[in-house]
Every structure is written in C-alpha cells, then in structure tokens.
Amino acid sequence: MTSLPSLTSRHPQVPADDLLAGFVPPPHFADATFDSYRPDPDHPGQAQAREHARSLAERLQDPPRRRWWTRTTPAGPALYLDGGFGVGKTHLLAAVAHAVPEAAFGTFVEYTHLVGALGFGVTVRRLSRRPAVLIDEFELDDPGDTVLMSRLLRELNDAGVALVATSNTLPESLGEGRFAAEDFLREIQALSDRFEVVRVDGPDYRHRGAPHPEGGLPDVEVRDGASAGGGTVDTFEDLLHHLRTVHPSRYGALVQDVPVVGITAVAPLIDQADALRLVVLVDRLYDRDVPVLLGGVGTTGLFGDAMLRGGYRKKYLRALSRLTALAAAGRDQLPAST
Fold it and tell me: What sequence ranges are listed for the domain AAA+ ATPase (predicted)?
C-alpha cells in the first residue's frame, strides 16, 4: 500500500521568541468584523454583546490620557462574553482584535504556555505593552492554572491593559467540577469581580439543520479522499499516541498548511488525557478551517457518557460541535466517485 503523508511524521518546533507574534486571530476569523457579525433577531443578547464589544473597541482606539498630576494608571476595562457554542463569541473577540491594533489574541492554553515559555515576569512585561489581551475559551482545568491566570490578568489589568474573554462558563463558576474549586474561591472571585459579564444567548449556528452525531466513512474512502485532496492520513490510535509527544501549544503548527486531515479507525475515547488533547487539536483544525475525514465511529460515541457528564463536559461538547462542522466540510470535498 502506498504510504501517504501523515501528522505523525510531523514534529513541529515553535521558538519561544516567535510565540507572541502568533497571538493574532486565526485564519477562520481573519475577516471577522462587527459589521459581519449577524445577530439572531430571536436572541437579542447577541446584538447587545456586539454593541458592548464594539463600544469597548472604540474606547481602546482613543485611550484616555494619563493625568499629569498622578503616576497611577487606572485599571483597564474588562469584558466577559458568556454563552453556549456557536453563538459568535470568538467572532466578536476577533472583531475587537482587528479593530484594536497590537491587541493580543490567543486561547487560554496559549497564554498558559506563553508563561511557561517566557517566564511570568517577561510575559507580564511583554503583554503590558499591548492595549488589550483577548482570551478565547477561558476555562480553568487545574488549580495551578487558576492561580497563574488570575495573577497574570490582575497584573495586566492593573497596568491599564484591557481584558476581553469568551467562555461558556460564568467567571464565578470557573473550575467547577474539575478540582476543589472552593479552595480557590479567593482567586476566582478576585478575577471575576473585574469583568463586566455579557450573556450571548442562542443556538449553535453550526448545528442549524445539520444532522449529528454521524458515523464515520469507510476507511478506504478516508484514505482515498485525503490522498485526492493532498492531505494527511493517520489511524486514530497512532494519532493519539503522537499527540502525547507534542505539546498542545504546537498543535497549530502540527496542522499548519494541511489541506485535509484523514483519520481512520476512529473509536470511542477511553482515556481522559487523550480526550483533552483531541479537544485542543480540533480547536486548532477549526481555527484553520481544515476539513476532516473521519472513519470508524465518526463522531458517534466519540466521547462517552461518563465524559459528557463530567467536569470537562463543555470542552467535549465544543469539540463535537466543531468536529461535526469540519467533518461535513470534509465530506463536501470528497470526489463524486468516492
């Protein structure tokens, strides 16, 4: 059998000094603006969220001058967009980034890795030069991240940096169900008190009229379709094994410039660490609009009932939402004879 390109043959390296240069909206949201955001008239919270985000961006375009008689810098504004999957929160966050030159845009995990790569002090100094720090999919998965991000954002906000975050969990509920959140209530409360919370309601636009979950394609069709599209093919087991060897911050580089990703023999996940790595990979594929061809079970039963009832439920549901959209795009690209 002819060997096809694979993700498992890729071992991306991202120099620490290059990390901050990548803190921009991903290709999927390269053209996101406030005007291109289409609020659902049945859910007025979407229009209200757009106006809150637009207003904040306008304030940052014309920042207040520091008073000459004081050396203190007022804390920056902080906006928290809370809502379900597929209601346009990331679109609005990207619109703020495009409207505010030099704003930093990244996911929660990308900011935590930035601290790990550069060190806390350097990260604070580098980000303090930005007018705004924008955090997508804000979520706290462990106590260490709680303390780290709470301290980072407090110091940045105290330095006058504006904060905008998106999440599907209210600030005071971050970390709920994952660890002993009551032990960290002081950190969580100190962080949540800084944000103006705006609810973005509505159904997931990716699922409007789209059937889900969906079984996988025959593996031969996955291989043939990925080959025809110049993409990669990996077995699900091999891919999960490879993801264990690559830091999640490099998953974007792992799939960079791949036109389509084929995964054969997809099976229900049994290990939570593997499941969380897959969530990050799906996010990076979605950011880059990379179609996916799934064999095996497809998205049916990919995350078991126990996972969907657990503390990472919202992460898994977001991954299913995005993977469903990517799989539909992959099927649309299949040759007519496939």
Answer: 75-201
Q: Which residues contact 181 (CB under 8 A, 6 or more apart)?
A: 174, 175, 188
Q: Are 14 and 117 in contact (CB under 8 A)?
A: no
- What residues pair up with 41 in beta bridges, in sequence order? none
DSSP 3-state assignment of 177? coil
| Secondary structure (DSSP) of 242-279 | HHTTS-GGGHHHHTTT-S-EEEES---B--HHHHHHHH
Q: Is 66 helix (H, G, I), strand (E, B) or coil?
A: coil
pLDDT digits (tens, 9 = 90+) for 84-111: 777 889 999 999 999 999 999 998 878 8
Would you call 249 exposed, middle or buried from its count of C-beta atoms within 10 A (0-12, 13-18, 19+)? buried
Cβ proximity of 90 and 29 under 8 Å:
yes
pLDDT at 55: 95
Give the residue extent of every domain in the chain. 31-203, 207-332
Architecture of domain 31-203 in CATH?
Answer: 3-Layer(aba) Sandwich (3.40)
In sequence order, which ranges of the chain are alpha helices (DSSP H)? 16-19, 45-61, 89-99, 108-118, 120-128, 143-158, 185-192, 219-228, 236-243, 251-254, 272-287, 305-309, 313-332
Rounded Cα distance between 51 and 47, Å, is 6
10 exposure class (CB count in 10 Å sphere: 0-12, 13-18, 19+): middle
Token pair 């229009």 in the structure block, residue: 47
